[in-house]
C-alpha cells in the first residue's frame, strides 16, 4: 500500500511527478517552440461560456520583457525565479463583455484552468512550473499597464528543475478534501 502522501498508482504520471521547484537550471533555455506549446496548452483550457478570459506577458532571460519583470519580484521569489528559462505573468479579464457586469465570478477560476494546462504541458516537455504571488502587484501592474478590466493575478516560473521534489512532501488527504468545508476549524 502506498504511503498516504504518495500518489496512488492510477494517477497520471505527469500529475504524480509534478512539483513546484525552488531551484531552476539557469543554463536551460525555453525556446520559441516550447513557449508556443505552453501557450497553446493554455489556449485549450475550458472556460465559462468559452470566454477565455486569460492573457499572458512572457519574458525569458536576455529579453527586455524579462528585465521589466525582475525589479518587481519579492526577494523570496527572486532567489529562485530569476534562474527559470521563462517568467509568465498571468492576467485575467474580470469584466464581462457587452454587459453591465463589472466582475466575472469565473474569470480567476478560468485563468487557473489555463495555468494548470500550461503546467501539465510543461511537465510533459520535461520542464517544471512554479506559480507564485511573491511580487509587487501594484508595481508590476503599473509597469505592464494592462487595458481596463484586466488584472495581474500571479506569475509562473517555468524551466528545467535543478533537482527533484523535496522529500516528505505533504498533501492533504482525500477524506479531508471532502470534509474540510463542513468540519469545525482547528
Describe this structure as you would to a colleague.
- Helix 2 (32-43) packs across helix 5 (107-124).
- This protein has 186 residues and is an alpha+beta fold.
- The mean pLDDT is 90.
- The longest helix has 18 residues, at 107-124.
- A four-stranded antiparallel β-sheet has the order 1-2-4-3, sandwiched between helices.
- The chain is globular.
- The protein starts with 12 loop residues before the first helix and ends in a 7-residue tail after the last helix.
- The protein is built from seven helices and four strands, in the order ααβααβαβαβα.
- The chain has a single domain, classed as NADH Oxidase, CATH 3.40.109.10.
- The chain has helices spanning 13-16, 32-43, 64-69, 75-81, 107-124, 137-144, 174-179, and strands at 54-59, 86-93, 128-132, 150-159.
Short description:
Residues 16-76 form the Nitroreductase domain. By secondary structure, the chain is α+β, with helices and mostly antiparallel strands. It is 33% helix and 16% strand.
CATH class: Alpha Beta
Number of helices: 7
What integer is the average pLDDT? 90
Tell me roughly what share of residues is in helical segments. 25-40%
Under CATH, the topology can be stated as NADH Oxidase
How many domain regions?
A: 1
**The CATH superfamily title:** NADH Oxidase
**Distance between the amino and carboxyl termini:** 29 Å
Total strand count, please?
4
Q: CATH architecture, please?
A: 3-Layer(aba) Sandwich
Shape from CA axes? Answer: globular
Strand order of the largest sheet: 1-2-4-3
Amino acid at each position: 500500500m502506498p504511503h498516504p502522501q504518495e500518489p496512488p498508482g492510477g494517477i497520471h504520471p505527469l500529475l504524480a511527478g509534478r512539483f513546484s521547484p525552488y531551484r531552476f537550471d539557469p543554463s536551460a533555455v525555453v525556446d520559441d517552440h516550447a513557449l508556443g506549446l505552453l501557450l497553446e496548452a493554455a489556449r485549450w483550457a475550458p472556460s465559462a461560456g468559452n470566454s477565455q478570459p486569460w492573457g499572458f506577458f512572457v519574458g525569458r532571460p536576455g529579453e527586455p520583457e524579462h528585465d521589466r519583470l525582475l525589479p518587481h519580484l519579492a526577494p523570496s521569489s527572486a532567489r529562485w525565479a530569476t534562474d527559470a528559462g521563462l517568467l509568465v505573468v498571468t492576467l485575467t479579464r474580470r469584466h464581462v463583455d457587452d454587459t453591465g457586469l463589472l466582475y466575472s465570478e469565473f474569470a480567476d477560476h478560468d485563468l487557473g484552468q489555463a495555468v494548470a494546462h500550461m503546467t501539465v504541458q510543461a511537465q510533459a516537455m520535461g520542464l517544471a512550473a512554479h506559480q507564485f504571488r511573491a511580487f509587487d502587484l501594484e508595481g508590476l501592474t503599473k509597469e505592464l499597464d494592462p487595458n481596463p478590466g484586466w488584472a495581474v493575478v500571479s506569475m509562473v516560473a517555468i524551466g528545467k528543475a535543478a533537482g527533484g521534489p523535496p522529500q516528505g512532501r505533504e498533501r492533504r488527504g482525500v477524506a479531508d478534501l471532502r470534509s474540510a468545508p463542513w468540519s469545525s476549524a482547528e
